[in-house]
Amino acid sequence: MNDSKTVFQSASANLELLLRQYKNQYPRNLGALLRNSLPILLIIVSVFILPLVTFFYSATSLNLGFLIAMFLVIPVLFVFSIILLINNKREKKTDPQLRQRIASLRQELDEYKRYPDVQKYFDGFDAQVIAVEKEKKHYRSRFWTILVVLFVVFALYGTFSIIWMKNYTNVCNHSVLGGTEILGLKKNVPFLILTPLTTDIGGGGKVESANVDFYYQENWLAFKEVNVSVPDTASILRLVITDRSGIPAPGCPRFIFKPLQNKAINSEPFCREDKASSSYTSNYFEGLKAARYLQAHKDNLYFLVEKVK
């Protein structure tokens, strides 16, 4: 009896050790799964998501500084994620035979089940093994749920970005922050239809369009096309919306374009100049205020084309 007791105690100690190893084996908790998936997510972000966001934001805000910053951040983020991926390999090391070794040793001790105390021990031990397995399965289930949610969010964002960019490249009224609803605009109905204040272009040339359609695009305006004839097709032209006296409409952005690139032109961002020498600063509320002014005075507005270079 004593020999059997000694053998059982030694084997049960090994069982407890294997169970602890199994419990601490990857994934030990939800944090381990998230932590080890982080490098892969960062790679996806640096290779796909961040370039998309960079393109979307830079194209819509014309922010060159942000574009340059992202060109520096993206490779750094990618290298950092690779380093994390290599370092995390140590935590993900597992013994694929560990669960089988527990089952084999447990089966070897079945001969001691005739003792009530041993049977009670086995019941408790088996319950612990089942609890650990359920716990690890629960961690994996929650982990995949989080991944699916993130995937759906990124997919929706990507879809939204593509749709928005498609609208952005088309000359029509559109807004993310609700400007078109506030102004009561329809997508394909021009925000303004203006005639030239004068057909003469300052610096030489003529405006040939009888009128030009302008559209509201939240941070700026866009016009569909303006036909001009100038001696130098490489010159730079500026279109300004003015009143009857030729005074620029308050807060209204200017359009810069070339004679041969005269279709689907976006203006500079809506802005507010605190000082005569200050640079333009995008301001949604100032832009909306300027758009309201243009809308209210549309019957008394014109456009003027000048040669700036």
Summary tags:
52% helix, four-stranded antiparallel beta sheet, 309 residues, three-stranded antiparallel beta sheet, 9 strands, alpha+beta
Q: Helix and strand layout, with pairings?
A:
Layout (H helix, E strand, L loop, with lengths): L1 H23 L5 H32 L2 H24 L10 H11 L7 H54 L9 H5 L8 E3 L11 E2 L4 E5 L4 E5 L2 E2 L7 E6 L12 E3 L5 E4 L17 H13 L5 E6 L2
Antiparallel strand pairs: 1-3, 2-5, 3-4, 4-8, 6-7, 6-9
Helix pairs in contact: 1-4, 1-5, 2-3, 2-5
The residue ranges in which pLDDT falls below 50 over 5 or more consecutive positions are 272-281
Beta-strand percentage range: 5-15%
Principal-axes shape call: rod-shaped
- Strand line-up in the sheet with most strands: 1-3-4-8
Helix/strand-derived category reads alpha+beta
**Oligomeric state, counting identical vs distinct chains:** single chain
Question: How many strands appear in the DSSP assignment?
Answer: 9
Our count of helices gives: 7
What is the makeup of the main sheet? 4 strands, antiparallel
Task: Walk me through this protein's architecture.
With 309 residues, the protein is α+β, with helices and mostly antiparallel strands. The protein contains seven helices and nine strands, in the order ααααααββββββββαβ. The strands form three sheets. The protein has a four-stranded antiparallel β-sheet with strand order 1-3-4-8, with helices on one face. Strands 7-6-9 form a three-stranded antiparallel β-sheet, with no helix packed on it. Strand 3 (212-216) and strand 4 (221-225) form a beta hairpin. The protein is rod-shaped, with a radius of gyration of 34 Å. The model is unreliable at 272-281 (pLDDT under 50).
